Every structure is written in structure tokens, then in C-alpha cells.
Amino acid sequence: MEPAKSARNNTKNKKTEKGTLQDPLFPIVGVGASAGGLEAFEQLFTNMPPDIGMAFILVPHLDPSHASMMTELMRRVTKLEVKEAEEGAKVLPNHIYVIPPNKDMTINQRKLRLEPLKKIHGLRLPIDVFFRSLAEEEGELAIGIILSGTGTDGTLGIRAIHGAGGMVMVQHPSSAKYPGMPESSVKTGLVDVVLPPEKMSLHLKSLARRAGGKTRPPITREDRLRKILALIRSQTGHDFSFYKKTTLNRRVEKRMSLHRLGTTSAYVNYLQEHPEEVSLLFKDMLIGVTQFFRDPEAFEALKKTLLKNLQDQPEATSFRAWIPACSTGEEAYSITMLILECLDESKRDLKVQVFGTDIDPEGINFARSGVYAENIAVDVSPARLKRFFVREEKGLRIKKEIRELIVFAVQDVTKDPPFTKLDLVSCRNLLIYLEPELQNRVLPLFHYSLKSGGLLFLGTAETNGKHADLFGVSDKKWKIYQPKRALHPVLEAEWRAFPRVEVHPSIEMGPELQKPKEIDIASAAQKTLLETFAPASLIVNAKGEILYIHGQTGKYLEPAPGRPNWNLFDMVRKGAQFEVRSGVHYALTRLKERHYPGLQVKTNHEYHPISLTVKPFTPTKETKDLVMVTFEEVAGREKRKPDPKGGKPPRDKDERLQEAEKELRYTRETLQATVEELQASNEELKSTNEEMQSTNEELQSTNEELETSREELQSMNEELITVNAELQGKIDQLSLAEADMKVLLENTDIGIIFLDRDLNIERFTLEAKKVFNLIPSDIGRPLHDIRSNLDYDDVEKDSKEVLETLQKKEREIQTKDGEWYLMQIVPYRSAANTIEGVVLTFTDITEVKRTSGYESIVETVREPLVVLDGELKISFANRSFYRTFQVSKEETEKRLIYELGNDQWDIPELRRLLGEILPQNNKFEDYRVEHDFPGIGRKRMLLNARRIFGKVGDKGAKILLAIEDVTCKEPLN
User: Which among 790, 853, 794 is positioned nearest to 818, based on CA atoms?
Assistant: First the structure.
């Protein structure tokens, strides 16, 4: 696995000539989410300080055909500035940028770049796309956060951020509404912080302070770094002393930031007290930037070079490749796919063997599994996905025939022995993290591993350095080299001295010797007796491979020439070769014993008479396809000398003829049985193959259709969940606004009636019931169907006029009960600026009318005045009346005039005159009254009365009675 990518050389913080900062650095945080993301966004930003000093880029899964309300909804929960991302927008601190719903977004030079969607439907991975660009652009200042969602989007993106030295934070799956994306990210082992969203702000504030330079830990001192590397070496066995110090320092600083440690000495103490932190730091230094077919143009260049080289490869040879620092296997599988494609195009049939090695056991185990998330579709073409992968519930699995071509092993390329006789070595983005001293050891090693005409494939940022004498350039742009000459013998001897490479136990390395078990005396005696009296026997399988030997078999078996093997058919001596093959075949097919007496086996230039027995061997029910072969010498028969010409011992003519007939018969039997079995097997296989092909084609077609539909449905489901969350947020806002409006309308003394364009009632307030006799069931009915309490019949006419002219109409109207209202009719405009009807408002102005009526006039007159209603009850009297007759308001109002005082006003003629005023609209003037009034004595009064209109709210007309005191002007009787 490659060491982590070193921090980029930030030039944005360079000083100008005056010494000021041109563009101060601040972390940029990419936040990805899918289903349930709106709720997680709100939890993340609710307590976020407005001066955090970071920029946040939100990348949710949005429906491309639906306008997003994410920006508006986020403004409700945060004090940070929230904007929808725009093409070329410069990223500023303390801002939140939200991806538009129909775009893919990247970042370049701290400016947002938007592109139209390449895929409207189906599997889209906007989070991976943005996170990768963020990692490439920002390096260690990049921060990636994965929140609630389904699927695996973001998994490849956080790998890039972590490899670039940035920070990765993930929502705790238990707090996520949809835990799919957080769980997929956590399984990578690359996550630095796992927290609920509401608790992430504390970590972000700490990171922002350090990134701003105020509390950033100093670069690790050399002696401190050596101590840290020593701790790693003692615990893991791997030495990073010759790796680039800038890379190592950045990784140490990152771990210090996570634990909020300000000095390297404090971190050294922390490592000593927490051994698990050493393992985490080791993993941080190993996380590589890897993906399928990284730098596609480089792979195309390699493919062209491989096609040329394969033309020179002789037939019946193998193609061997080695991928050191293979991380989690993507590079190894990519190279293998490329090799197979080249073999197909060149129509060559070569055996392929690929070795993928790395120092990280976890990465090697992941590579061995060969299972990757579905989001690798971003890097792997549909044709390659179909050819080299099979879909499973867990994701995409490398096909078995591809996986079997690769051997994954744990190996440190800087100290373990290399593979040899290789046609290709692909080591990309490893050398750039090694010091020159270590590079000078590794490059000659690759030269030693490659055979003449082989290829060395390096990363775009790597070269052959000082070893131009060892490698010639095949493709300068894409760093493809070929070895020039043989390696120095000293180097060859040096590397041969290394121990063997560790290989996974699943790879067969040949038979292993088993330690003999200790036995007791009884077992030893039984064994001796068996060896003495039991004939020599063998247990073999259907292939003739010897599984067990009993007794001395040297007279009957001998090692076959060539590579050592334990096959009975190759080892049996002359004279019994045919019988052994025939007998094993007979025992396996017929499940019966077969006996061959009188065989002559050649041993040490002599023929020994033996008896051969072959029978099925089934010690248990589970044991199948095993055969026991027994060799037994025939006593009493004379050994024969071989024919001097090399033939069999001399025998009479009849005996040789019988033997030939016997062999022919055995041959015919065996051949006949074999032919019959072969024909039956061929027929069955042919039929099965046809059925399987048909079924496979149908299943493949169905699977492709289902997979396409599943991807589209998953993507649509995520988008719909996001849209639903946005709509739910909007509904909550509208519900709150509606509740506020309802409370407002119900607590105001204004009657409101909403009418549609046809003047049908849509809704009304409680106060409107005083004007129109409305009940809840009247909603939807025309206004003219409702009986009103108004002394005004043109409400509907006025409403139609407002609809036609769109001009506001205002009128003071009175109810039949004498109440006064200010009626206003205005057009109702919707949010889309369309006229949807009219709104009628009725404001009670009765009190206004009252204060502006006769009362104010009566109060200004100096003579006593009284206002009487139709029943001659006093409705109102002015202050002069109370002062003149020395009575109170409580004793006067709402009482009959002839009941006042001691009935001094109970004059029949006066009652008659007053009673005729209202019905006949009469009046009288200077009606004389002389009487003794309590408290003021005898007075002579002139009374004047006339009809007046009552004040607003009074029923009918009123009588105004004016009283003039003329006592001083005329003498009393």
C-alpha cells in the first residue's frame, strides 16, 4: 500500500511584496448525504458558530427535475451565509454552498465548477466526484463528512481525502435515519471521527483554529520523529526511516490534531501510553490513493506497449506481472484485466500469473476477497464490468477465473526478496514517498526482477532517477520503461539472501511433511506383524495418486523420470502397467474386485511372478473414489531371465498367444466401457450445456435489466427522499405560518371573507358571522346564497366590479341592528401574482361613529339638554343638565323622564307632546313648566323638543329636549 499523499505545496498563502497575505488558507469541508440528509444537515449546522472560519459544500442527492428548496431550508437553522453554488463562484469562509439539483460539481483553484449531468437517471455518484476533486485541490486542508444515506456514494471519495492527508468524519450509523452510506464508509477503515452530527462542530472548531495557524503544532522535530518511527518499528516491524519526512510529519500532525495535542513530545507520551494509537498512525502512513484504472490515458498507453511486446512472445510461455504496493487490489486487478484484453486482441494464448504485494495485511485480505462497492462503476467501463465482475448482494465481485490468476501476499518491497523473470512490474506512486537512498535500492531491484524485454510501469510523478543506465524509455509521458542490461552479480546475491515472501495459506506450495506420531508397544507390534505377513498394498484415488503405502513396494514401483510425482500409473514397473490401469478403472466403474494372477513384473533385470488384486476401498460412507491395490508374490514359481534382446522371458507359443488374447480382451472391455461412459457423459453434458446456456442468457439478460432498474430506482428513491424532506420542511414552515395567521385573524375584531373568482366562499373568520349568517358548511357556497345583516344589498355587485377593475373599493355600511362597519373589497393575488378572487374585510366603526355623533355636540351646549329614545327614556344628558338639577348620571340615564326626581316632569301635556314627536315628526317650542325642584327650589323652564337621528348603534330616531331656565327673566307665580 502506498504511503499517504504528502501535503500539497500551498502557494495560496504567499506574501505579497508588502508582506500581507493574498489569500489566507482555511479548510474546505465537503458534506455528502442522501436519504435523511436534510435532518442530518440541520443537526450539523444548528450549533455551528457563524465565525467558524471554514467553508462548507453540501452535496446531497437531489432530483434533477425538481427545484431544490435546500438553500432556503438551511437558512432557517444556521447563521452562516447559505448560497446555491454557481459556476466559477469563489469559495469563502463562513459560507455554505449547496449543489444545484441538475449539476455535477467539482472544485478547482478554490472556485466551484458546475457541469451538466452526464446521467439523468440511474446510478449517479456526485459525492465521490466532488470529494475526489476536493482531495486533489486541497490536500491536507480537505475535510470530508458523510451523513445519512443509502448506497455507497462517498466511499471512494473519502479514500481520496484520507490519502491526501485530509480529515474524514462520518455520522454514527446508529444516529443516521438511513445508515447505508455511513456504514459503507466506516468499513473502509479510513474514518478519523465517528460522531452524531450535532457533536461534530466541536471537532471542526478545533481543526479550524489549527488550520488558521494560531494553535497549529510545529513541524515535528527530527529527534521526536525518530522516536515515533522507532515505536512504529518495534510494534509493526516496518521501518519508515527512509520515507519522505514531509509526508510523515503531516501524518503525525493530523493525529495530533485529532487528539488536540499541541506538542510532539506530548504525542510521543500518548503513543507510549496507548499502543493502539501506534497501529492507527501506521495505517495513516499507509493509506494509498488507489482506484481501478487510475489515469485511464496511462493505461491506454500501457495497453499499446503490451500489444507490441506480446507479438514477440513465443508460444507456450507465460506472462508474469508484479504489482508492489497494491493496496486493496484495484491496481492488480486492473493490470490483470488489461493483460487479458491484450491477449484477446493479439489472439495469443499465454498463461497469466500476477503477483500483488503490500505491507498491510488488512489491505491484502481485502484484495483477496475481490469484492468492491458498486460505485467503482465510475472508474470501470460497462464492458469491463460485464466481463470481469459478477453482482452480489454485497457489491461487485471479481470473477473466479480472474481471481485465480493473481497471488496476493504480504511483502515489504524495501527488504523482502522480489519476484523474478517478470514481464511487467507496475509500481505507481510509491517511489515519490521514498528518500533517494531507498529509491536507489528499489529501482535496481525492479531491474533484477524483469526479464529481457519486460516493462516497468511507474506513476506520472515518478522517474527512473539516477538509473538511466538500467532502464530505457518506452513512453516518456506515461513513464513506461524497459530494462537495458543485466544486473550486477553483487546485487543479485544480496537479494537472494533474503527470506521467502509470505504467501497466503490458501495457495498450494507443495505437499508438507507430517511429524510421526508416537505409538505404544501394542501398536508397534501390530505394525510389525502387518509389515511381515500382510502383502504390499496402496491406496490411490481415481487419478492414480498414491494416498497411502503399506509394506515394501520397491519390487513393484519405481520413480518415474522427470519431475517427482506420486502417481501409481507412472510408477508401476513393467509387466503390470496395463493391469493396474485396467483394474483401477474396473473397480471404480463397476465397484467390484478384480484379480490378476500370474503377472511377470520386471525387477533388477529379472521377471518376478506376482498376483495383483484391485478392489474398491470404502472404510467410511463418506469415502468415495478410492481403490486398494495389492501386490502379492507367487511362491513356487521360477523367476525368469529377460530376453537378451530386451523382450519378455521365453515362453511357449500358446502361452504368449493366451496372454495376447487376454490383453486384447481387457483392452476391448476397457475401451468399450470408456466409450459407453463417454457417450453417455457427452450426451448429458451436451443437453445440460444447452440448457445452461439458454438459462444463463435469460438470467444474464434479466439480471442486467433488473440491475439497471434497481440502480435507477435506488437513485430515484434517494432523490425522492431528499425532495420529500425538503417538502416536509416547507410544510412545517407553512403549518407554523398558518397557525400564526389563524391566531392573528381570530384575535382581531375584523371580519374577513375570502371569495374565489366565482364569488364562492373559501374561508372566513369568526367576526364575519356578525355581518353574514355563516356556518362552516357554507364554505363553497356562493355569497348571494347567504343572508346578511346589512342594510346594503350591493356587496356582490361591488365584488364583481373589483374583480374586473382590480381596484380597491371601500364603503361605510350599517347593519340592521344599527352597527356600523367599514367594508373594504380588494383583489386576492396569489404567490404567482395571479388573481384568485377577492377579500372582503369588515371593520367595526360603531364606536368611532358614536364619538363623532350628537354626544360631542350636546356636551358643548351650556343649556341643559336631554336625549330621549322612543320610550321616552333618557339615553344621554349633558353636564349642564346634571349641574343644573343636581342629579347623577346613574340616577338619570335609562330612566323615563317623568320618573325623575319627585315626578316633577310627570306632566300629562308634556307626555302627550313628547309622544307625538317621533310618530308624527312633530316638534314643540317654548313649552312652559314651573315646578319646585329638589335642591334648587322653584324654577320656570321653557322646553323645546324635536326629532333627531340617533347615534350609530341606537335603534330608531331620538328626541332632543332642550331646557331653558327663564326664572330670572320672568317673575314666578
Answer: 790
